[in-house]
Amino acid sequence: MVIRYDHIWTFRGSVVTVETLSSCTTLIPHSNPWRWINDSGWTHWVYVQLMTDWTEKDTVYSVFLCFYKITFELTLNVMFLITSMLSRLQINTNGFVATSEPSGESSYLGNMPPKFGIIAALQGDLDTSDGVGRVFYRQDSSPDVLRQAADHINRAFPEDDEVSPTHAAVVTWVGVATQEAPSRGDGIDTRRNTFQLVLASLETASYAVVLYARDGVQFTSTPVGDRPMVMHSGFSKGLVRGFLFSSQGPYYRTSTDDEASVQALAEETNSGLRGVWVYEIGTSPYFSNVAPGEVTDLPTEEEHGASNQRRPFDGQQVEYPPYGSEGEQIQIHSVQYQPHQPDNPEVVVVDDTDINKCSQFADCQDYSAGFCCHCRPGFYGNGIQCVAEGKPQRMNGKVNGRVLVGGSASPVEFSSNDLHSYVVVNDGRSYVAISDIPPSVGPSLQPLSALGGVIGWAFALEQPGFKNGFSIIGGEFVRQAEVTFLPGNEKLTIRQEFKGIDEHDHLAVSTTLEGRVPEVPRGATVQIDPYSEIYQYSNNLITSSSTRDYTVSFPDGSTETRTYQWRQTITFQSCQNDESSRDTRPTQMLSVDQVFVMFDAQSEIIRFAMSNKIGDVNGGQPQENPCFTGRHGCDTNAVCRPGSGTQFTCECAAGFIGDGRLCEDVDECRENPQICSSHAICNNHPGTFRCECDDGYQFANDGHSCVAVDGPIDPCEEGTHTCDIPERAQCTYTGGSAYICSCLPGFVGDGRVCQDVDECQPGRCHQDAICYNTQGSYTCQCRPGYYGDGVYCSSEKTKTQCEAHRDRLLGTTEISIRGPRPPYPPVGQYIPTCDENGAYEPTQCHGSIGQCWCVDPNGREIPGTRSGPGTRPMCIDHGGVPPPIGPTPRPDVHPLPPGTHLLYAQSGRIEHVPLEGYDMKKDDAKPLLHLPEKVIIGVAYDCVDKMVYWTEITSPSISRASIQGGEPTAVITTELDSPEGITVDHLSRTMFWTDSVKDRIEVASLEGTQRRVIVDSDLVNPRAIIADPPNGNLYWADWNRDAPKIETSYMDGSSRRVLVKDDLGLPNGLTFDPQSSLLCWADAGTHKMECMNPGRGDRRQVLEGIQYPFGITAFGKNIYYTDWRRDAVVAVDRYAGRESDEFQPQKRTKLYGITAALSQCPSGQNYCSVNNGGCTRLCLATPTGRTCTCPDNVVGVDCV
């Protein structure tokens, strides 16, 4: 068998992709073969003969290929297409030039636009393997070629200033046929197309000139599979990577799916010459669009011949137009133009595809062989993944697989078990926890500290001259390990795929376990001594192996030393273009000590902890510097910088500020409010920040700007529906443009027209009552001389508790000759005051002594509320609202539209005011929830599940409801007397509240379970309470008349201390702004609003002269509070120190608690935010950790 050389290519560059349609059958030995293996595993050989080009510098290769589909890479300096500066083009035999790596034929043939960047002159499944079809290409800056390009461009854009290109690239497809078997062996009668693409550029713009043969397009479709597909021409940027995902970038089609449009390419024009098409494809500095030529009129044949402008770009000789001798060599000019590089001469501007591969904390650098990414100072990694030096790292993932234990024949299944890890990088300590481990396998996994060992290696403490794993290979790699236990030869394989840093700045990993482990009985513990492991580094591969001993301590006190052999490989993809990367030491030693393993059978969690250092395999000189021993005392968010001897300095990691011993997060969102684009929200994260688009917006192709999402319009929200008015009907959106109209209770109709139902039928009310029909309802009212609610009427009035109490103190009415005398109080006697409904007024006063105090619904004085002469305390109403008669609205939640809202309590309902920026959209204010006969005091919001929580005191309880619709649910109904303030820790999934009668603070899970008292001493009138979840702190106010104060503690109730006790009167409202770290309060006694930083104690006044504030909440630059005297929600600009707006609800009654329902959760995490902090019951965060504790009602259970 003899191999046939299909054709000879002369080129400069490299073979990028070769799509093999059939393999070579025989290989002729050659002295200088290139070997290439395609995706399917077949090995092919390219035979190379070296020749010297006449320029003496350039080497031109003549390559004999046995491939059919070839893509070459050509180094260019053409500026091109939609936000790109190209340094490379890839020419494909299928009639196009790719601006990024092309995918396989099956993905782009017949599809326009494809998923990669493309300039398609005439793209289809083309054949150049028959010795007739050829492709020529070169970069050309000769005056003649540049003049031709300028003539075409200036003729196509006659109204623009004339241009003079400085560079050009010429690609010609000559006599290409469709990919099908010819009817004759010589292929002479096969239809063939010829066309040419020229890319011309100057410093400020780039143009594409496409020329089609005078004899027209000979075929307009090519076979794809078993059917013909129309060929395509046009431009596309391909997929563009956004913040979270990729989307189709801009594209411009010059032909359609109609074959006639392909024929028209050779018959029409946009440049004034038949078959010649000109496009401006980039304008500096933005390169944002494709602009077609403006001259579509065709010249007469005489004009065409006289102008002689339709001659080809010479140097590539084919039949049309004449090119000269076929064997002429084609010169490829070297790159002459380089973009301006002001700072680092190695940093160049490349196309978007290359840039997007680098981390946002890395620069893309150019080398002779290509590009590589390098982390900037202050960061480390492989350039694709970069993290801040000194910043602790977290790893999250899932564990799957099957493990057999001992001689068992039934494997234990792992299905998406949570794996979490935390590393203190500046001392090399790593912690790993895997949850939901069945007790049948948990003890036997204790020897496998190596499950988390790879994270220790990745972020090990580096000794001088050595690098940990992440510094070398970043966060994307695959680790395969095999463990062989001796002497039983049980084998377990561990495969871990590390997927890089996710959107939460956590390293993502998936783990699979398969095999068998020897049994470690329940109750036994495992001890692993310090060990060392040598890592060997080679090209894209790291290996290590070792033998390890471990000791098993059995429940009976006996011990046994066991052994296993460990072997692992780590594969990764490095950048081969940077020769300096090859300087990595071939061997390094990982030293691991302080190894701790434990299986918690109660919580079914296995934990590993260890300290890791990477250094010399020979041990090296003992390091005394604390930076290398890890005993430096720097903050966990700091990097230790070694000095001479034992000297060192602590330096806060990027994104943190401080002296290195104590580092605080820099809030980039607060310091630079414009750091994100419009319609975006800035979320601060430890050490960094993230921009997230508002609801209804998504990231544009640049990954920064937010553009509106073209989604369906909700007619119910927009008010374009045809339902009856809201007082009679409800509009329910069902998706798309559909909605349903339904009449409200008390009305009948089709929803578009609703009529009131007259409910006043006989028997509806008491026989001694009158029924009054109202819109949608009715009321019953007893006739004169009768008392009752209308449903029941009596001629004798039943006294309420307050009325009986009052009348008892007043005594019976005395009779005299002048008639009955009204009761009068005994001198000096306190007489209770009843409201119009007979209930105790919440504020009771003793006229003789001039003192006032608050009472509960039963008239009992609330301790600590008594005021002196001339003042009145702020007392809460206890349900003095008369109960409604007849049907009442269902307590359903009316769903809120997207965005941020203020939620406030007003007697028996919760209402909302939407925010637009920081402005209250008063016209859109509506009720969220109706709860008749209730008095709601405190409100809090859970941004994760989008639930509102509230306290109410008429029938003391804590309830919740989704703001997206549904019915309220009571979560706590027992052991409550007067719950008032409430706050939610959205990270730990807990809530905290105050009880002003029980004088205590409690915590519970959001479901109302796991309840525990955390503060129950030295409290008199606790009301407002607020949490700072990321920092694990809790704040509350006690408005005790005798000694008002504001206090703080950790969320577990520990480290309690008084923050403010001077110059306070009635500190009712309390809020914490996470962006500024300010605690703010409103005082109805001093009539001031003040703020302070709890860590510094720098108290300052925001506003004075406020009237009677109750609730308060912060959002951005504003503080919003409810005012009892004004019956209003008031906005305060805390930077300007003035009130900026006021909203008065239609219903003028007292407003209580207020909170902000944010469209997205604020940034930050605490030690309970992942896997409940590893706790089995309550996890309560603290600034430096968490406390695992039991609920009060759990006895005899170990809570860890």
TrEMBL record:
LDL-receptor class B repeat segments: 946-988, 989-1031, 1032-1076
Domain NIDO: 121-284
An example Gene Ontology biological process: cell-matrix adhesion
Gene Ontology CC annotations of this record: basement membrane; plasma membrane
Record region (Disordered): 295-324
Residues annotated as domain Thyroglobulin type-1: 799-875
Transmembrane segments: none
Name recorded for this polypeptide: Nidogen 1a
Gene name, Swiss-Prot/TrEMBL: nid1
